[in-house]
Amino acid sequence: MPTPKTFQRKGKTSPRRQSPKTITPTHVLAVDPRDSARLGGIRQSNTNIERQTQLILHSLGLRFRTKNRSLPGSPDLANHQERWAIFVHGCYWHSHQGCPRATIPKRNRDFWLAKFEANRARDARALRSLRRCGYRAVVVWECQLHSAPERVRKRLARLLLEQRIRVSDEVSTDLH
Ligand SMILES: [Zn+2]
Predict the structure, then answer these.
(1) What spacing in Å lies between the alpha carbon of 46 and ligand 1's midpoint?
(2) Strand order in the sheet with 136-141
């Protein structure tokens, strides 16, 4: 079993939160300088989609925390009391299956294939762990936010408001 610290460090895959410690020589070799601009763009886009999701939650009257390192996979947004967590995933970095945004760089293709596969496996593990802890764990994809934000809003409203009711029912049952 990994220690919690290791787990947390590995839990976040996006480059924006990668600490210098996690950059191994393999990474340095694999990231071609020509890809740097592209990765910079992805980082910016991650910030935007996270902000967009935050605005949706605000509009639904849902409160959340943004730094959730104590939870599996460090979800981008979570409410510990209401036991829900959201991952806002960039389609490229989290390798959204079947999505046109999830391209594989031509250079160092094998490295990237392995990397994306590992990212996907890690994301799936985090979702499973959270659900085992009684959390409603939701993934919001970049492409969904771009093409159908209203659909994302409706889905989050349905899932998270339902979860809020479920948890508050459990709490009131416990009190009796
Ligand atoms: Zn996508």
Answers:
(1) 13
(2) 77-79, 84-89, 136-141
